[in-house]
Structures are given as structure tokens and as C-alpha cells.
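Report of the visiting student (M.T.), summer placement. My assignment was to run the structure pipeline on a short list of targets and document each run. The first record concerns SDR family oxidoreductase.
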Amino acid sequence: MTPTRLAERTALVTGGGRGIGRAISLRLAAEGALVAVHYGHDHQAAQDTVKQIEADGGRAFALRAELGVPGDAEAVWDGFDQGLAAVGAPAGVDIVVNNAGVTLPKPLADVTEEDYDRVFAVNTRAPFFILQRALPRLRDGGRIVNISSGAVRIGYPAIAAYTMTKGALDVLTPALALQLGPRGITVNTVAPGFTDTAINPTLADPQIRSALAAHSAFNRLGTPADIADVVAFLAGDDARWITGQWIDATGGVHLGL
Ligand code: NAP
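After the run finished, the C-alpha cells were exported:
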């Protein structure tokens, strides 16, 4: 069957070449969207993602823009506009997924001013200005999904500054949802829990893996596809009545005492 749920839609996925972003790119493309796979450094991963989408019968292109540096948002949209023109697609965007992010695994005492500025520049400043510049391109009925973290709802001293970056982004979601509601555009946050990607190198240790898995009600780590499925739901018409929400996609991490 030809996928039609997101047919005629164009999506931008930041950090769409690896990890959770790759799963989101693959899933949105499988639903029929033309996907702009943004990446910062890993050209090969982005190319592989585009090739995988094309091999599965979908449409995608890669665009590079380093986030966390002056002019980053402008570079993202320049690359997006050029990519659309190169594949002969009409200008504009329907789905924006702010997924790219970096962690900062340091307790408060060890965080330098440079560390702090960097993690905020990539995780908070970049999505803010990406969304600002998305506004004139977003078609009515569009979708915005910001990727946060389940760590925001618990105390987690080891990554306090990182969690602050996500908390700030979370506050933008309902504000933008109210602003864009009259145009039928929804804005939501998806918060993953412990998910099996390269962002957490300690997952290579089997003991740490099982300890983190045990925080979930399902006693396992999340997979990128677990998160991508939630994003794909929010990106489609079935989620038209959900906006301004913080969706916990942690597999029930820390539900009880
Ligand atoms: P990941 O595997 O490390 O992927 C990070 C992605 O962000 C990559 O695609 C990377 O692209 C991009 N990126 C990072 N820094 C960038 C920069 N300066 N400029 C441009 N792109 C940049 O991590 P992940 O687990 O998939 O994380 C995806 C999102 O989920 C992040 O926002 C993260 O905070 C959030 N999250 C993850 C977990 C988890 O346990 N995995 C939990 C909660 C929330 P390049 O390699 O091409 O630069």
C-alpha cells in the first residue's frame, strides 16, 4: 500500500541523521513525507539515512548546518530552501521536529561558563531561532514537535544544566501553541527517557544499561523507534486536537516511589 498519512507534507528533522532523529526521519518518510534530514557533523550518517529512505521508496535530502553558532538557524533554512528547490518541491514546510541536542554530563560544581553557553546554544537557542524562521514557511495545519527529556520532571544533579536547556524549551511549546492555534498548527513536546543512542556512552556498560532500564515500568531502555512513533502520531491528522502538551515518552520512568 502506498503510504499516504503524511503525503504532500514536507518535514524538517534537526539531527535527523543519527539516533532518535534518524528514526524520526525514517518514520515520517515511511508515512509519505518529504524529509529534510538536517545534520551537523556526521555527513555519512545523514547520507545513509537519505539512502535508506530512498531504498524504502520515500523522499529525502540532507542538509548540513552546525547548531550552536551564530547564524545557525539561517543556515538551516537556507539549506532547507536549497534542498527543496533541488528536488523540485514547492517552498514551505509542514512539520518541524527540533530533535538535535547535546548532553552535558557534569554536576553543577564542574560546569564551566563555556560548557553552559554551549549546551544552551545547541539545545535552546538554536531551536528557538529555527522556529522563529520557520514561521513564514509553515503552512496552515502544520506541526511542531520539540524533543525534550524526561529528566525535566525529576531531580537529576548529574545533568542539571542539560536539563535546564530542555526546561526552557518546554516553556516555549504552550506559548507557540497559543500563537499558532488559529492557523491549525499544533506545537507539542515529546520527552524521551533513557533511550539507546550514542548520546549516552555509558550504555556500553551492561551494568549501567540494566540499572537505567530498571527505571522504566517496562524494565528496558527505549529505542529510537519508540520515540519516532510518538512523533509520527503528533505529526499526523489524528493528533489535530492535541497542542501545547508535554508528552512523556519515557516508558514510565520513575512513575512510583
Ligand atoms: P545522539 O544519538 O547523540 O544524536 C544527536 C543528534 O543531534 C545527531 O543527529 C547530531 O548530528 C545532532 N547534533 C548534535 N549537536 C549538533 C550541533 N552542534 N549541530 C548540529 N547537529 C547537532 O542523541 P539522541 O539520543 O538521538 O538525542 C536526540 C534528542 O533526544 C536530543 O535532543 C536529546 O537531548 C534528546 N534525548 C535523548 C535521550 C536519550 O537517552 N538518548 C533522552 C532524553 C532526551 P551530527 O552528529 O550530524 O552533528
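The pocket of NAP is lined by residues 15, 17-21, 39-42, 66-68, 99-102, 122, 147, 149, 192, 194-195, 197-200 (CB under 6 Å). Residues 113-134 form the longest helix (22 residues). I thank the supervising group for their guidance throughout the placement.
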